[in-house]
Structure formats: structure tokens, C-alpha cells
Amino acid sequence: MTAPRAFAALGLTLAAFLLPLGLAIGSQTVRRTDLSPADLARVAAVTKPAADFTAPERFEDMQGGAGTSRKLVNRDSFSQSASNIGFSGEDRFKLGNALFRKVWVASPSSTAASDGLGPLFNARSCQSCHLKDGRGHPPLAGEDATSMFLRLSRPPETEEERRQLAERTLLRLPDPTYGGQLQTFGVAGVRAEGRMAITYREEEVRLADGTAVSLRRPSHTLLSPRNAPPMIGLGLVEAIPEADLLAHADPDDRDGDGISGKPSLVRDPETGALVLGRFGWKASAPTIRAQTAEAFSGDIGISTPLLTDAFGECSVGQRACVDAPSGVQPRLGEVEAPDPILDLVTFYSQNLAVPARRDTGDPAVLRGKQLFHEAGCASCHVPKFVTSRDAPDEAHRFQLIWPHSDFLLHDMGEGLADGATIGDATGTEWRTPPLWGIGLTQTVSGHTLFLHDGRARDLTEAILWHGGEGQRARDAFASLPRADREALLRFLESL
User: Fold this and answer.
1) Mean pLDDT of 306-314
2) Residue 306, Cβ neighbours under 10 Å: how many?
3) Cis peptide before 340 (omega within 30 of 0)
4) Which residues make beta-bridge pairs with 267?
5) What are residue 203's DSSP bridge partners?
């Protein structure tokens, strides 16, 4: 169901939701309530699209604002704390890091504060999926699928289910037997739901200059794979004002540029309010805290104050799973991960620093940046924003950041379609992923596998998979001579 249709089902209009947030509709203009007129002018000036490509823009190397990490580039480049969080923040960050790495065990165990795993699960710790806080990948030969999971869903069958989807009390309908995702591990006495096996078919694409590139098309059969995304900069993304993101939305393509960015509207699980989703491959999570709770429940089978079912992703039909012992310790709380565990892991996730950019003044990088803009890539991969003065965390306030994303949903064509409708996102729509840190994927994660399912083996393949709204930019890249393609890739590798 599209956003306008979903609002109609609620008896609302899209405009009624967007106007308080400041989106320009008709003759009205975008507004931010956190800024003075003078600051609004400063923000408009500093976030204006680049026009001069002969030199780097001011502060362009500071991708994550004042919190940008300038530590040595190595495997730990995504695991540094934001440099502006202070001593007390550093303490919370280290505690959150310890909990992020914590290995959970099955109940009952002698380590009462660590049991509660499963009974069905995909990983034993957050770090298992987000190794080195970096990018996941599909299972290679002989590997398990720890950093990738398969999302399961089905279409609505009743009016009640359609109503729940329209009101966003549910974003998707889980499989009645296996739940919302396939669990590849189980504790003793509980069988895993299955194993992931992916086959690929090679498809050759020939570029304008005659270069042949082989793309691999995966076969998942009615399943929607998800690689774990990098963890950097999440708190800064959370601090971008909704009005500034919605200013890039054009769901009906009124300007005729072929780009129809659409907001993903979801319920905040803590307030019940309808807000902008900005996290996850389909922009289905409104906050880092909500996404962290979902990962605890779905990936590890650990209950938190936000998602209190101790059996995690087990469906009611999986009796061995539902009846297995839980890790709830009454003396510690009513869930397996009571406060302050969720808060600390959330804080850690919000404050992983974005690494500084490299080689911003290199002529090839500057040429690649120009080609990136000329090809239309920046229409979705919006380079920069200024965060809110009212952000809850002082370290995230009023920061010029360079995520290279609009965090909206875009139709990427049938080639990347997974067939899964999640909230406002149709089977062909995906949230624009941020590009900061993408050039350090090999360094941090040990691979260069990109896109939601890791099918692209390098950045060239990732670009060539773009269809739908990305087709024009993809074709522009494919038509470039080799030297210009390499310059554009050099720009991406500098991020």
C-alpha cells in the first residue's frame, strides 16, 4: 500500500502529516523549528549542492562532524567512539561495547546474567552479525550465515490484517510457522528452522566502451535476504530533522526528474506516534533504540523492555521453542536484558564514529565527485545535512555531516526486487543507504560485497544493479570511458 493510500485508510491526508514537519507542499516552504532565521540561512548555504569541483569543500573530510574519527585506518576504523562525547560518554560507550560483544548462552545456566539465548536464534551476540561494526555478507563456501538473515513475510488475508498494516501497528505479516525471519540455530532440544543456501547465475553486461562486466543474480525463492549494515554514524542520522529529509521527498515526481523519493512512516513503539522511519534496508525502524530491541529479539532471542517475549522469534506453533526455559531473572527484572542493557547498547550504536575522508584534494577524486553529481547520483545519495540543535545528545547537535543519503524509499527496479512489502516500502523499493565509510569496507570487513544481499562483488557491480529510479545514473556510469569510471570509483573509495 502506498503512503497516500495508507493515510486515506486512516482518514488522513499525507499533507496533514507532513505539514507540521515542514515539508514544502504547494507554495509552503520547509521549516525547522530548532533554528533561528540566521541559522536557517547558514544551513541553507552550507548544504547547497557543490558547484566547484576544483578543490574540496570546507569540512568535507569531517564526514561525521565534530565526532569524526581521525584514528589510523585499520580493521578497527568503524569501532572508534565519536571524538566529542566526553569522559562520561566514553564510559557509557565502553559499557555498551562490552554488552554489544557479550555472548549470550542458553537457559538455564550458571551465568545467570548471560542466559536467555534463543530458543531459536541467528547469532549469539550483536558483534557476531556486525563484526568489527562493519558490513555483513552472504555465506561463502563452508560458512554459516551469521551476518545475513532471511526476512519472511506474507500478504494480508483478512480485513483486520489490512487494517493493521494501514495503521502501522504492523509493518509486515510474519509467516505463520516460522515467524518474521528464518532462524538458522536453536538451543539444545529446539531444532533450527533451516539453513541458508544461495545459488547465483552469471549475467554479462557490456559497457559503452566495450568493457564486459559479469553480474551475479542470486536465487532466494520468496525469501528476502538482509546483510548486516555498517554501524557508523547512526546517532547523527537520528539527529537529522525530519523536515530536512522530507524536503527531498517527491513521491509523485512532480519535478519530472525521474526521482520519486518517498517517506517511510512507522509507529514509534514507545510513543505510538507516526514518525519517519530512517533505519534498516526498508526504512522500517524509527529509532536506534527500536532497531536494537528488534535485533535483540529477532537475531538473538533476547527480550528487552521494548519487546518482552522471552521466546523471541518463535511462532505460537513452535511449541518446543515457546516452552523452552527463558532467561528471565526476577531479581534482575521482567525481561532477559533489563535496563540499562538496552540503553547502553543503544548509546554505543549511536556513537560509533564516522572515519575521516581520505584524499579529498586528489584530482582524480575531485573529478570523480564531479561525475558523481553529473550522473545524478547525488539526487538520492544527498551529500550533506546539518543535524538538529534539539538533538537529545549534545554530541549530535548542530553538526555538518556527509552521509550521502536521503534516507527515503526509492523504486530500484525489478532487478533488485525482493517482493517483500514492509510498511510503505514495496517489493521494489529500498531506503537509500548512506555511503560514508564505503571505501573502507575491504579494510574493516575483509570483503567488497555490496547491496542488501551482497550480490555485488565490487562497487562497479553495485552501480550496474541500479534500476528504476537509479537507471539513469546507472546508464550514465556505464557510458563513461574507463578513466572517468575509475575516477568516480576513486571518489566512492575516498568516502
Assistant:
1) 88
2) 18
3) yes
4) 274
5) 215
**Residue 104 CA neighbour count, 13 Å, CB half:** 33
- Per the listing, cell 515539508 goes with 23
Q: Which three cell numbers stand for residue 268?
A: 514509534
What nine digits make up the cell of 411?
Answer: 523504486
- The C-alpha cell 570546507 sits at 58
CB 389 within 8 A of CB 271: no
Q: Which pLDDT belongs to residue 9?
A: 39
Q: CA-CA distance, 351 to 85, in Å (whole number)?
A: 8
CA angle 306, 312, 317 (to 5 degrees): 130
The SS3 assignment for 410 reads: strand
Q: Which among 441, 494, 230, 439 is positioned nearest to 352, based on CA atoms?
A: 230
- CA 349, 236, 354: angle at the middle one, nearest 5? 70
382-393 pLDDT, tens digit per residue, is 999 999 999 999
**Total Cβ atoms within 10 A of residue 480:** 18
Phi/psi of residue 160, each to 5°?
-65, -45
Task: Tell me the pairing of strands 224-227 and 148-151.
Answer: antiparallel
Global pTM value? 0.91
The residues pairing with 115 across neighbouring beta strands, listed in sequence order, are 105
Q: Residue 41 in 3-state DSSP?
A: helix
Phi-psi map region of 74: left, alpha, beta (phi>0 left; psi -120 to 50 alpha)? beta
Within 13 Å of residue 476, how many CA atoms lie on the same side as its CB? Answer: 16
Q: Read out DSSP for 117-129? A: --SEES-SSHHHH
